[in-house]
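Why do we care about 3D structure at all? Because function follows from shape, and shape follows, mostly, from sequence. That is the central idea of this module. The next example makes it concrete: a single protein chain, its amino acid sequence, and then its structure expressed as tokens.
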Amino acid sequence: MLYTLETFAEFAQSDEVLIGYSQTFIAYFEKYMSDQDFEVKIEAASSFTNFLSYMNDEKNIMKYQGAFPTLIKLLIEAVKDNEERGLKMVNSIDHLVKSHPKFVKNQLEELLNVFTEMAGATPLCVSLRNAALMAIL
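And the structure:
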């Protein structure tokens, strides 16, 4: 289901439909981002960031800004869970930030704090720390 929404966003000719049905789309993504299965949560979050990255107009993506705290929460959970999931979340959020920097402006301080802590956390694997460092840059 989420892959279909992601693909729909990729090939949409305009953002009008994506905005017109934003509440419905958010409900689908939030449903899966709160699933009991952690792998489903991470895949849903990755799909959601890709979905948002395909939007063309910066003002339109702001309709989805309320879901960003959930992404930060999942980022933290993924890093604590394992390297692969942590890397996936770091890369997904980094891609979103680079595509739409204004989308994260209200949570920028929190996001930078998370990435900074990750970059300096020696218990984390080197690849995860490097990914966090690259996301800061």
